[in-house]
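G., before I forget:
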Amino acid sequence: MYNNIKTRQSRFSHGSRSGGRSRGNFGGKKTSSVNPNLYVNRAKDQIAHEEVIIKHKFTDFGLDQQIVDRVLRRGYETPTTVQDQAIPLAMAGRDVIGSADTGSGKTAAFVLPLLHKMVRDRNQKALIIVPTRELAVQIDDEIRLFSAGLGINTATIIGGAGFGNQLRMLQRRPQFVIGTPGRLKDHLNRKTLRIGDFSNLVLDEADRMVEMGFIDDIRTIVSMLPAHRQSLFFSATIMPEVRGLINSFMKDPASVSVKTRDTSENVDQDVVKFTDAYSKFTSLNDMLADEAFKKVLIFGRTKHGVEKLNDALLERGFKTVSIHGNKSQPQRQRALQDFKQDRATIMIATDVAARGLDIPNVSHVINYDAPDSYQDYIHRIGRTGRANNKGIALTFVSHY
Ligand code: AMP
């Protein structure tokens, strides 16, 4: 199948490895700083399987039996590496820093020990701070699955959703509050959320929150938490700013570093050269018409650009959905579900909206607009080639 794509692809990308120069301006006003040579890479023929020894079973952690039952009912048989290493530390009351990415099973790694605490002590409460609305909803879903019937309430406090429903969720005195920094601060300022007795803190995707400029908000929010607490941090990379947060928020933290397989090893990467907007769109059209492009995630730089592309592809009969910051939360969730459940075969997204999403079986990632940074690029292409499948990533670069 890949050969088909290569044949088709070769029409667009001659000598792509050497064609390294790029204007770097692919429709948006901003310029990408990424050298296009980095967009070309063959996936390894033999996909390397991680040699990790999992030491525990879910029954070994000392988790309340009701929680273990729900984990097993969910179909999780063996802990993932991050769960295997982080759960015992969290159960022992340690602060934990996990360098682990989406797909590593990090959500259950912090949710299960917290849930255990809450089942044993109904006064325990946890604040989970995340960069995006979708990640908040994803974590909330996971908590609900593991806590069904246990009398645990959750509240998702995210921008783009109405205050009324959030107030109702908060009035039920939820044990878990999962939120994005801006909206959490709004509720704290209005005193509709009080966190003085939240003795558990999770920062998920801390690196992304720093990148998105949330660092001051996070500091303000965390300063309202009790000093005596357990803090769990997860971040794909521990950059200096994240290290700063760790030093000021955590006490003698234990580190767990999960060597996530190098995503790019599983992903065939190539460029698609274009000369003008028309040739760019035509190339995209041709690709999407190829049945090998089964489930495609397309990245655009701006909300407006994403919406325009979505409309243009819909007009041509493609089943697309789009996801970006101008859409309401229910619209974003609906789009995501349509794509996850294959009612739409193409999803067009901005970086922020797509961060951390767990979408199975994406066959292709297409960077219609180049990413701002190589780190963003790696995050984008990490949406395909998951779970030891091979994926394909194609990046449009201007050719002159
Ligand atoms: P996360 O990294 O938390 O977003 O999890 C990635 C995916 O792995 C989610 O779809 C989880 O439901 C799934 N998952 C997490 N832990 C396990 C496990 N121990 N066994 C099987 N699947 C898991």
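Residues 106-120 form the longest helix (15 residues). Residues 58-257 form a domain with the Rossmann fold fold (CATH 3.40.50.300).

More on Monday.
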